[in-house]
Structures are given as structure tokens and as C-alpha cells.
Amino acid sequence: MRPLILVRCATCGKDFHKPLHHVKENLKLGHRFFCSRSCESRLKNKQVLLTCDNPQCGNSFKRSYKAISPRNFCSRSCSAIVNNQKSHRRKPLYKSCVNESCRNIFVGNRKYCSVACLPYKGKPPPHWSYNKTQLIEKIQVLAKKIGRAPTRRECPQASSCQKYFGSWNDAITAAGLMPHRSKSQKMYKRIQSHAKNGHYCYSVSEVIIDDWLTKHGIPHQKEVRYPESNFIADWSLPRQKIFIEYFGLAKDVENYDLTINNKGTICKNHGIKLIELYASDLFPINNLDIRFRVILNNDQSY
Predict the structure, then answer these.
(1) Nearest to residue 209, comparing CAs of 174, 244, 167, 178?
(2) Residue 144 sits in which domain range?
(3) pLDDT digits (tens, 9 = 90+) for 242-275
């Protein structure tokens, strides 16, 4: 058994026994003796006791020499309380009520000081005063003006149509027009799924076209970039310079029609044949055999 030596704790002054080889090692390295970890940490702790500079707090806390600043706070909330008092506060915005019979002064970004000053005073807005017959006439006049069935964004009375008919497509049907994408026409729905060969498609219509190409053994690539452009083609036939596009939203959105023209121009400038497919090629009768007859007859490599 190794001999023990009686030593004294450098923090609390308590006498305790320590093995002789530990004592020799401490004396050689110039270390002090501690009876416990708590006594060692208390003596080696260099933190300074400070008082929070928030006059409303006054809590005491410890902080190391390196972390001491001209103003010391025990928490972020105390720091915010003191610093916000010195910051420049934004002055409130005083406005006069737009209602001519009121003209009260209030604070805020609103036009009217209260609900009672609103122009309708609880009544529905003027564009809600149409009945079903008047709404149908509005839709028909707008369709005759633009030459097609209008979209919901193009009709100022769209909210009233949805209120009385249940949906915008039902209002278009009531006006004797063909909706752009009917609920019963599943191939117009934006249902994302995979084709049989694993290609990721953004609609049921794209799945039908992709599966038709696979069925007839025509190698094709999905999502190919146009030359010198950020446009993406739906399909590309690698053995020929042919792009295939499904324009399901044609004659529905003006910007979409502009994109169709731009893609056609790019293909014409780079000698690429563009096969354009529309919703009428798939519904109600699938006419892909007729639309792709050029590929099947002219290219014998397939």
C-alpha cells in the first residue's frame, strides 16, 4: 500500500490525505492541493461579480474579464429596456378619415377611421348587386369581345359568379360556353405522376403521350432545354432533331400563347422540327396515331 501524506486544501484550509507520489508530482509541477472539485473551481474561477446596469433590475451576476463591457446587463431583456429608451422612436402617423361627413383624425394606414365610415356601411359592394341573368350577359359580352371563353382573372364580376354559380367553370357553362378545363376531363387536371418507363410527368395528358411513345418503341427524352434559351421542351427524339410539346393551356393565358410563338421561332432558327400537341388531340378522342403519323412513316430507324 502506498503511503499517504497529510496536506492542506488551498481553498478551504481543510487537511486531507493524499498519496505520496501525487504530492511529489504536485510539488514538482508547482500545483496546489484541493480537497474537492468544487474547491478547485472556486479558486480557479476568474469571473467577476457584477450588478446589472438596468436600474429597474439590480440583479448580481458573474462574468469573465474578457466579457466585461462599459455597460453590463444580466439578460437581453434588461439590455433592450435601457437601449430602447435612448433610440429614436417613430412618430405616429395621424390621418384624416376619407369620409366627408366624418373627417375624424386617427392613427394608422387605413383610409377610414371605423367600419361605420366605410362607403358600403355593411351592404355588399356594387359588383355583388348583379343577378344570375346579368352575370351571364356580362360573360357572353366579354367572350364575344375577346373571341373565346374568358378566364376568371379577365372578368371583373368573377367573385359574383363564384358566389351565385358555385364556381367559375359552372358560370361559363351557364353562359353557354365551353370551360377551359372541366372537372370531368381528367386529362386536363394537373396531376403529377410517372409514365410506364419512369419518366416524371406534370399531368395525366403528359403521361398519355409519354406512354404512347414507349408503346411504339420510339426512344425519347424528357425535359430537354431549347438551344440558346431557358425554355424546356416536353420531349425530344434523340435520333431526329424533333421536339414534342404539349400546349395544354393554349388560348387560355396570353403569356402562355406568347411562349408558344417564341418556342416555334427558336425551332425554326435552329432547324428543329416542332410537333405541337393540344388538348383537342387527346380529348374526347385520342388522335396521337394521326398526329405522329409523320414520325412512323418517314423514319424507318424505329
Answers:
(1) 244
(2) 130-174
(3) 999 999 888 766 678 888 999 999 999 999 999 9
What's the pLDDT score for residue 268?
92
pLDDT band at residue 186 using 50, 70 and 90 as cut-offs: very low
Number of domains comprising the chain:
5
Question: Would 56 be classed as within a structural domain?
Answer: yes
Q: pLDDT for 1-16, tens place per residue?
A: 678 888 898 888 889 8
**Strand 273-277 relative to strand 242-246: parallel, antiparallel, unpaired?**
parallel
189 has a pLDDT exceeding 50:
no
Kindly report the CATH number assigned to the domain that includes residue 205: 3.40.960.10
Q: Do 39 and 63 share a domain, yes or no?
A: no
Same-domain pairing of 214 and 270 = yes
Pairing relation of β-strands 60-63 and 48-51?
A: antiparallel
| Residues 273 and 251 placed together within one structural domain of the fold | yes
CA atoms of 169 and 161, how far apart (whole Å)? 9
Residue 181 maps to a domain: no
Q: Is residue 257 part of a domain?
A: yes
- Domain membership of residue 180 (yes or no) is no
Burial 101-137 (b: 16+ CB within 10 A, else e): eeeeebeeeeebbeeebeeeeeeeeeeeebeeeebbe
